[in-house]
Write a structure and sequence with these properties.
By secondary structure, this protein is of the alpha+beta class. It has 5 helices and 13 strands. Strands 1, 3, 4, 6, 9, 10, 11 and 13 form an 8-stranded antiparallel β-sheet that branches. It has a 5-stranded antiparallel β-sheet with strand order 2-5-12-7-8, with no helix packed on it.
């Protein structure tokens, strides 16, 4: 009887041990599945979080760009605190043509308009008959001798225009370019004047037809260019997009010799005798052109 009970006990123990092993195996498998499931869930959570962060960063970047654009728009055609302290004068407020008039006339030519905060010459192809009949260059109605003029310009494809300084009004001369030096405005890639003249002296930034802009750094057509014209003690400097591109001095033997062999004496025999004080002018050369942020500091 004891032997029989012992055998039964052994069989029972073996069966119990087998069941225990099976249970442990099931538990380990369940834990492994749970771990994989948890890891997968965590990975999905991480991916979702990363995606949400990217969207958030993108939104923040777009928002920052919008803020910068808004700030730039608010600052357009205004003087900074530093410029006010330095004595700069705003020549264009982005809203009106106050202070401007036509060359050799009292009224303002209708082919110039205020458009989106710019002073815009519409171009002959876009002019009405009235605009064509009354078109012309414009000047700011105040004379300057020594100064720093700053502004931005943008030209149309194949376009041509210019910035004049020290200009003189006279019934003898019908255009300001017959009396004043000009900082050239040009689409260097699209206008034929870019390859005319000598050594690129009809390209953007140049003292037109006299001294070439070097380096030639004009922005592509349709983009804004920042320029400065410095006049002090008859010494002149053209700055284009942050670089000095032209330097010269008037009333020197070199100046007189350069003018003598240019086209200007045929237009005005006294062209070399640029006035000590004169007008700032913007050119109607038939092509659309835009100006903004026009300001000047007397020296």
């Amino acid at each position: 009887m004891k032997q029989s009970l012992s055998k039964r006990h052994s069989v029972f123990s073996l069966a119990f041990y087998s069941l225990a092993l099976a249970g442990v195996s099931l538990m380990l498998g369940a834990c492994s599945d749970a771990g994989q499931s948890t890891e997968s869930t965590e990975n999905q959570t991480d991916i979702g979080s990363s995606s949400r962060v990217e969207v958030s960063d993108s939104d923040a970047h777009a928002s920052a760009q919008e803020q910068q654009t808004e700030q730039a728009s608010q600052a357009m055609n205004t003087l900074s605190e530093e410029e006010r302290e330095q004595g700069y004068q705003l020549l264009f407020d982005g809203k009106t043509t106050e202070g401007w008039r036509g060359f050799n006339r009292d009224d303002f030519p209708p082919n110039w308009v205020v458009e989106n905060g710019t002073l815009h010459m519409v171009g002959i192809a876009n002019m009405s008959d009235t605009q064509k009949e009354n078109r012309g260059d414009i000047i700011y109605d105040e004379t300057y001798s020594d100064f720093i003029l700053k502004l931005e310009w943008k030209i149309s494809p194949a376009g041509n225009s210019g910035i004049f300084y020290l200009g003189e009004e006279s019934e003898e001369y019908d255009f300001i370019w017959k009396t004043a030096p000009e900082m050239q405005i040009l689409d260097n890639d699209g206008h034929p004047d870019a390859s005319k003249g000598k050594d690129g002296n009809r390209q953007a930034g140049s003292l037109y037809d006299l001294v070439p802009a070097e380096p030639q750094n004009a922005a592509p057509v349709g983009q804004w260019n920042q320029v400065e014209i410095h006049v002090s003690d008859r010494k002149v400097k053209h700055i284009q997009n942050g670089e000095v591109v032209v330097e010269y001095e008037m009333d020197t033997p070199e100046w007189n010799a350069m003018i003598a062999v240019s086209k200007f004496p045929a237009l005005n025999e006294n062209w070399a005798q640029v006035p000590e004080s004169g007008y700032i002018g913007l050119q109607d050369h038939s092509d659309p052109v835009w100006f903004r942020n026009i300001r000047i500091k007397k020296l």
